């Protein structure tokens, strides 16, 4: 695992071990928990207008920070279980996205890449 996440990965492993939670942290369960946390992040923005979502008060922003952290921590734990280097995977995906969405073809458009294929 790359340096940006190694210390968090180690801390997550210790946290789970101290609580005997490793037995529950299968890749399937972690992926499911991740979706729950992502939904909780969405809930922070539910019913807000676009303008309100960009101008959160401190209490709202604190809730968003907590949910972002929960999502990231579950991703780190899942990646550790599957021996996925998050940083390397992200760089590889950025390359794939650049190939799928050439800037000269997609600039200013929200269309899916399949609409740009020959």
Automatic annotation (TrEMBL):
Keywords: Hydrolase. InterPro entries: dCTP_Pyrophosphatase, DCTPP. It comes from the Bacteria. Pfam families: MazG-like (PF12643). GO terms for biological process: nucleoside triphosphate catabolic process. GO terms for molecular function: nucleoside triphosphate diphosphatase activity. This is Nucleotide pyrophosphohydrolase. It comes from Terasakiispira papahanaumokuakeensis. The lineage of its organism: Bacteria, Pseudomonadati, Pseudomonadota, Gammaproteobacteria, Oceanospirillales.
């Amino acid at each position: 695992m790359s340096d940006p996440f190694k210390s968090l990965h180690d801390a997550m492993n210790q946290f789970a071990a101290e609580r005997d939670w490793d037995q529950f942290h299968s890749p399937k369960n972690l992926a499911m928990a991740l979706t729950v946390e992502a939904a909780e992040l969405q809930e922070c923005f539910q019913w807000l207008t676009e303008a309100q979502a960009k101008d959160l008060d401190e209490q709202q922003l604190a809730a968003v920070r907590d949910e972002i952290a929960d999502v990231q921590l579950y991703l780190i734990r899942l990646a550790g279980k599957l021996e996925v280097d998050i940083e390397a995977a992200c760089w590889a995906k950025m390359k794939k996205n650049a190939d799928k969405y050439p800037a000269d073809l997609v600039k200013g458009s929200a269309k899916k890449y399949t609409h740009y294929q020959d």
